[in-house]
Amino acid sequence: MRLEYQNENEISKSHSSTPDEPQLTGVKARTRHLLLSTALRMLEEGWFPSITELANAAGVGRATAYRYFPTQSALVSAVVDESLGPILAWQPKEQTATKRVVELLEFAYPQMLQHEGALRATLQVSLQQWAAERANKLDSNERLIRGHRKKLLALATEPLANSLPNNDYQRLQYALSLVYGSEIFMVLKDIWHLELDGIQDVTQWMAKALINQAEADFNNS
After folding, report:
1. How many Å apart are CA 167 and CA 169, to the nearest integer?
2. Which of 9, 67, 100, 196 has its CA 20 to 30 A from that of 155?
């Protein structure tokens, strides 16, 4: 896999421009949709395709596929945006931080389960890029940017932003980032073999405990 990943990076350097997605229409839009839907299907079947493999499966030329997705990072980023779009667009309805975090977990984890292949691909690319960076072989333009949970947790904990000291509020968000996200989802699913209900129960219990502790520390200070 590492050799294949390095080969993908070398090939992609000659196809470094990606179309501006909002402007895609007609054939270009249909081609991009075909590539994304094919990638989603392959990921859900447990196959993390190279760009060449994706092109073959979708029935398009390799050069065409590279124009849309120059690297696996670009592909995974697009797949995540496509499959987990509802999570990324989440807006809270509740008024308290505790209820908002529970609301986020109840909304997000069923979506994650539905698109588990995309989540695992994201983790795989992150590990590959860590190895490439350690070997000084990672192009900064190929880095997969992960950080959606920061925005979502900020929305969920916003009611506490002005009531907790800044350091305590930031520490709470750090801690909650271990309660919400693909990593704990995989731990509870793969190691403990929990189903969705169990994942929800454990993560909501952890979130409530963390928020309660943050508030108790502030009240006792």
Report:
1. 5
2. 196
